[in-house]
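Inputs:
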Amino acid sequence: MKYWSLPAEKTLEQLGANVDRGLSASQVAVRLAEHGPNEYQQAKPESVVSMVLRQLRDVANLILLLAAGLSFALAVREGHGYVEPVVILAVIVMNVVLAVTQERGAERALDALRDLNSPTCLLLRDGARVEVETAEVVPGDVVLLKTGDLVPADARLVEATGLAADESALTGESEPAEKDASALAEADAPIGDRTNMVFSGCLVTAGNGVAVVTATGMATEMGRIAAFLNDAQKIQTPLQRRLARVVHGVSAVAVLAAVALLATGLQQGEEFWAMMLAAVSLAVAAVPETLQLIVTLTLTRGVHNMVERHALIRRLPAVETLGSTSVICSDKTGTLTQNRMSVRRIWVSGEKPLEVGESAPGGRALELLRRLALASNATVEPDGEGGEKIVGDATETAILRLLTAGGETREELEAALPRVGEVPFSSARKMMTSVHELPQGGYLVLTKGAFDRLPFSPASEAERAKRQAAHDAFAHDALRVIALGSRVVEDLPESGNLEELERDLAFEGIVGLIDPPRPEAAEAIALARRAGVRTVMITGDHAATAGAIARQIGLIGPGGTVVTGRQLAGMSDEELVENVRAYSVYARVSPEDKIRIVEAWQEQGEVVAMTGDGVNDAPALKAADVGVAMGVGGTEVAKAAADMVLTDDNFATIVSAVREGRNVFSNIKRTVYFLLACNLSEILIMLGAQIVGWGTPLTPVMLLLINVLGDGIPGLNLARDRSDERIMARRPIGRNESFFSGITRAIAQQTVAFAVVGLLAFWLGTFAWLPGGEGPSLAAGQTMCFLVVALTSVLHVFTVRSRGSVFRRTVRDNLPLVWSAVGVVVAFSALVLVEPVGAIFGLAPIGPFSWACALGLSVVPTLVAEVFKLWDNRHETWLYRRRLVHHENRGEE
Ligand code: ADP
Ligand code: MG
């Protein structure tokens, strides 16, 4: 149906809709069944078969396949059973199964996240306004649209005031399209000319309106091109890509080592095929199969933890960027403060300021309150439980709450003075106007907003000074000030532009609202500061109000400066960049200023997180390294532009997300440390033994057992680890900080320690007579080497967990890790102890003295690590203390 060529009433009739009541619940159910949910179809998910094939093409698995083939050929030739090829194949199967299930798990987690992020819209149903998820919208629904909303479906406008929508995704037109409910378009008009329609997925950039839904889901204009829009996230982040490079680097080393092993072996006259197999298994041992898997897991875990802390990640790379964040630019109202406003003080010219509490005042103060309420858009709605609640902007609900406490309602006031027009509030204008018809003819213009922005008519010097003094006294007490001006006119402007009425206003009075800081804000700011993260407050409020709040939460000291939007406008970009470090509080700014502030910090090399809630904040959110939108008070426009959405609008949540981002990075670093030390030491053991002519210390099967079970399973649980307090006592992670920074020496030191004990164990078993055993043999040597290499890597998992001593860390904070480690130790000991099973893998029983030697050698690398840590920590604790003292002394940046 071409509803844009029909009058609104016809459209309503055709769709069986009612503008005043909306659809009924039963109608909705029928239509939902008929049209399906209002969603675009997702691209087909990758099939399991293609996922498996993709995994098999992985370097590690290719090498394993080669090994399986070789060992099969060898088994056929020598006829000594098929244990080896079977085990290798089993490992390949396990690798693929693990990778595929984990990857699907990660995908599912991201899908769930998308659902959490799903937008909502305001509908009229059964005569009441209800907020529903966009997916539940059906044709015939009546949608209420306002600035900042996402249009939930294609819809025909019934009413529109100053409505404009960004339709660039559909038309390519970057200027917002102005809408007109009464216009009619040709049946064959292109989308851009259908001015009486709004389209699914577009954003309302100005005004408000009422529209009836004409099409949903794939039937919408956006649905038609949904195939191109598929924003299914690739789960590869920059970090993962960097990691892939590490894996490839190590794989290259592994292949080179394998070639070297083959060459030395052949030179020493070893048999070609056996040597070939040894070389391939060395390559297998050295490739860190599980590294990328663990990293994917760590990232998804991080996202999950953030959700629990009220931070929804919309773009996965944000997890990493958060760890590097060094400046947080935050709104004041609602983020650093509670947004629970209440009117504290009222002043009408000629009277004394009046302190108010819970109950409404009388006299001229009451008159001022009434007029402020008339110029507000907050409404009283049923709360669904028989009671009532006030909904709307926090400033306006505070005014209405005080008025209703005195038993008055806005409806009564509006009945006497019907509203005929409105100039909406915007953060750029900092005021709004409503126009009311007077019973005796003419119109009453009421403008409420920032005291210094209202265009008052000229007054005497003395009067102006009195107003200013009253305002300043309010603002210094951290009160948010709203002023009211009024004017009576005969006619409305012919141009229809009501903004022309905003001049020559008579001063009516001011009210001061209190909005207490969030209790956790001061602590979060201090925590961030210790973590090397600077907090900057940006607000549209007056400089004095902003300064008072900033002092309360410890953002600036008693003499700290507040930069105003006007001062900012007088600064060149270069000046701002140069001085940006000196400013922590910006007041009376407009959303455009936010971009300049973000860019100035970025120019200084900082990684910036910026919060925002309004339509005009979207460009700043995009410019920031991490755009943070408000989940409760934010518009859909802001959320669409953001990387992260706060479900509690709380500043402290950003700081927890930063911590989580650091945790993710440090977990990945731990994993790199853990796996590289294990794999590199295996290369050294294999190569070293061969070069000195001792033979092969570990068979391919043993290497695989160690790598897949011994390292893989505890390693996967490393992803669960949480860092201790100190993670917030370090500087932010550099934008391109290497995974090896600070751990290169530790990796080298542990690799050498592992290799030395592993080789020693092999030598003892193969060549030295140990009391109580059967005498030295290659099998005994391999068994001892197997035990030592397996046990050292299990113990190593605890070493990498913290820069602190393993004995300090409580085991209870990661029980799965502990249990998996215990499980691996028990399983491997059993392999050696239960003879028939061990024989399958080429393991021989060893005597008690050999056991004691193996166990003793296994703990040596852990002790070595402890000694080094002791030394490092003396140094770091000293640095840490110094930073603490340093910050306490500074107090203010
Ligand atoms: P912020 O959200 O950063 O505190 P705003 O841009 O919302 O800043 O508000 C800036 C100024 O605009 C306030 O100091 C107040 O004077 C005025 N103001 C805020 N909300 C309203 C409103 N609903 N109606 C009229 N004026 C308002
Ligand atoms: Mg605001």
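The first strand starts at residue 120 and ends at 125. Flag for discussion at group meeting.
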